[in-house]
Amino acid sequence: MVSEKPWTPVDVLRLLMAWLLVLCGGQLIVPQFGPSGMFHTNADGVMALVVQMLAFHVSALVMIGVLLFRRGISWGDAFGLGAPRWGFTLAVGALVGMLVLPAAWVLGLLSALGLENAGFPVKPQQAVQLVQGAATTSERTLTALMAIGLAPVVEEILFRGIIYPTVKQVGYPRAAIWGTAFVFAAIHATPAIFLPLFLLGALLAHLYERTGNLLAPITTHVVFNLVNFLWLTNPELIRRWFGTGA
Description:
Layout: H1 9-29, H2 44-71, H3 75-79, H4 86-117, H5 126-133, H6 137-169, H7 173-186, H8 194-211, H9 215-233, H10 235-241
């Protein structure tokens, strides 16, 4: 079970408002890496992704650190990171990540087909476009570090570690699960993957609740992003993993 947290809804609201201001500032910087911007280079797409993800993730991490410091609680105590049997926790998280992938892929495919049949153009997520278009090893490494290393850790700390228990503690446990799942899916701003990410978000909240250790949903999220990244960059490897290839 997730333990009681010392921060208040007002603390979280202030954090989110400050975070949104930083994001707005990041959106002003990103166009400067375009064809008419002052920082125009051959790696415009990668640089824009770096700026956006740093604004989105690193700023959230810093603000969460400030919140924990003000409330006098360590990262380990706040998110159950020091709980026993962490090896078992990591294994459970990895297993759940592998099991949820087929369902997520099917939901994504059905969503894309439904949108196309309804006359709505289906565009891949911007991060997906950049991963597929990364031309150099350094660009692929940079996008991999962002998608596999940074994003899962920060998003789980923010959504499952901070927002989920806050909503739950004010008396809305179901809204905590489904509400955080909805916002988590919506912020990725890609209709075709909304349902898979909504499913993933709800599952991650249940996993955190069951284990009381944020390492479990972080591991699931890392595995989910890792396999999808490899699917984009090396689909033959994924086919062999799941027994769908030669």
